[in-house]
Amino acid sequence: MTVSTDKNLLDLQLIFNYLHDQAYWSKGRSLETVKRSIETSLSFGLYDDGQQIGFARVVTDYAIIAWLMDVFILPEYRGSGHGRTLLKQVFEHPELSQIKTWGLKTRDAHDLYKKFGFEQLTKPEMQMEWKRN
Length: 133
Hints:
Layout: E1 2-4, H1 12-22, H2 31-39, E2 42-48, E3 51-60, E4 65-73, H3 82-92, E5 101-103, H4 110-114
Parallel strand pairs: 4-5
Antiparallel strand pairs: 1-2, 2-3, 3-4
């Protein structure tokens, strides 16, 4: 297994297909939106013998805060620790290793993220969001 932030190695069609067709959080996302999100984020590909099997991206200011997004392992590769491998590389990346505050949203991967120190918000009343219609 290898993890790389080289955007030239990313399989854009694989990422788009997964985010557009399979991921509950991004169904229907356009190819243009996927491309732009990759261009403006620190993106990580997970590869098995050169074939991409996973993806994650981080939106960050590289100083104070980072938001982990679009994390996935292809279904046929799940259950073998690949998600932990990918996340370990994300959190240990030299440009992110000093970030103190991380955020993410998940519906079903709480146990995985807890292994890396994530927990429920301690003061959810302090967090707000705005969603454009």
